[in-house]
Amino acid sequence: MQDTIAYLNTDAAFDNFEKTVNSAFLQTSMVASSTALRDRAAKVLQAVGSPKLQLLAESVQIDSFTKVKAAIDKMVAELNAQQQDEVEHRDWCKTELAQNERSTAEQYDKKENLEAEISDLKSTIERLTKEIKVKTQEIAEMQKQMKKASEIREGEAAEFQQAVVDNQITQQILTKALGRMKEFYALAQVSSHQPGAPHIQTSGTHTDPGNGPARFSKYEKSAKGGQVVDMIETIIADARKAEDEMHAAEINAASAYETFMKDSNAAIEKYQAGIMDMTESKAKAEESRVMAEGDLKATMRQLEGLNGELGDLKLSCDFLLKNFDARQESRATEIAALREAKAILSGMK
Questions:
Q1: CB 232 within 8 A of CB 176
Q2: How remote is the C-alpha of 118 from its chain's centroid?
Q3: N or C, which terminus of the chain has less Cβ within 10 Å?
Q4: Is 79 in a helix, a strand, or coil?
Q5: Could you tell me if 202 and 212 are in contact, meaning their C-beta atoms sit under 8 angstroms apart?
Q6: Which of 243, 295, 259, 262 is nearest to 121 (CA)?
Q7: What is the CATH number of the domain that holds 25?
Q8: Residue 190 domain-assigned?
Q9: Residue 129 counted as domain residue
Q10: How far apart are the C-alpha atoms of 164 and 334, rounded to whole Å?
């Protein structure tokens, strides 16, 4: 029965009826049946509340069934394509947003690491700069002390030479004086046994020495002369001892000076080597800092690009993602209504 009704509702049946059937009753019945189907199909489409389906509902009332069903098929195909496109767009949005989030997190981690690295490198450069300055100042101070020590040593050596010369001159003078004193007191010792001067007999007799230049008494000074000689000998001995002490002091001073200069030169060489190492380390740190700062700038550009990309994604995806289920459901409702309307027009309902 339904197949018969369906056939009777086709445009071909209507055309055939117009040519072959002249019964007014049959024509009236068929028109009434067609109107009822159009009304039912239109109500189904209008119930959805879609502007497009509202227009199609109006078309159902006036266009042929074949044209209306073709329009329904076309609209269903379009809606199905929109459903699929929207699903694909949603999946793309999720993928792109997730990738943007991962990339942004990675770049922020890189940014933090680079900032920490740059901070450490700046601290290292600052520390090395201070240490190089301190070592350079210490070298300058050691060189100053070495110069001062050289000047002092030079002065001490000159004083030593002069003191030795003076001491030796003193010894020479005292030695000559001692020799003369010994000769004088030795002669006086001999003469003290025979008062008077036998080579000048007129100055006195053997019982009266007289008052001439060859007159001698008991030569009491000869006893004191020995004390003077002993004193001079003591002074000479002291002078020789002092000279020996000066030589020893000079040797010690020269040795101490040489040790000081040797130790200072070694310390300077060590400091200079340290300065070279620190200078090299500083240069490497500065190079690394420049590279890290370049990487940081590039990372900031990456973050700016990702932020811009995120803005574009939000414009493209936010509305879709927030309304995806509702839109899919609404479109599915439209598709169901269209299929139901077509079924009605086809006499299947």
A1: no
A2: 3
A3: N
A4: helix
A5: yes
A6: 295
A7: 1.10.287
A8: no
A9: yes
A10: 128
Identity of residue 96: E
Tell whether 160 is covered by a domain. yes
Backbone angles phi and psi of 215, in degrees to 5: -80, 130
Location of structure tokens 């070298």: 139
What DSSP designation does 63 have? Answer: S
- Domain of 7 in residue numbering reads as 1-165+241-349
Smallest Cα–Cα separation from 171: which of 76, 99, 243? Answer: 243
Count of domains observed in the chain: 1
* Whole-structure pTM value: 0.60
Q: Quick check: 303 and 108 in contact, CB under 8 A?
A: yes
Distance CA 175, CA 170 (A): 8
One-letter amino acid for residue 95 of the chain: T
DSSP string, 223-268: HHHHHHHHHHHHHHHHHHHHHHHHHHHHHHHHHHHHHHHHHHHHHH
Dig out the tokens for 32 from the structure: 């009434």
d(CA 173, CA 13): 168
DSSP for 194-205 reads: S-S-TT-GGG--
Decide if 204 is inside a domain: no
Q: How far is CA 134 from CA 32, 128, 261, 296, in A?
A: 112, 10, 21, 33
Place of tokens 């590039």: 298
Token pair belonging to 147: 């110069």
Predicted confidence pLDDT, tens digits, the chain (349 residues): 345 444 444 555 545 544 444 444 344 444 446 788 888 988 988 888 888 888 888 888 887 888 989 999 999 999 999 999 999 999 999 999 999 999 999 999 999 999 999 999 999 999 999 999 999 999 999 999 999 999 999 999 999 999 999 999 999 998 998 888 888 877 766 665 555 444 444 444 444 444 444 444 444 555 566 788 888 889 999 989 999 999 999 999 999 999 999 999 999 999 999 999 999 999 999 999 999 999 999 999 999 999 999 999 999 999 999 999 999 999 999 999 999 989 988 875 5
What CA–CA distance (Å, rounded) separates 149 from 213?
Answer: 64
**281, 128 Cβ separation under 8 angstroms:** yes
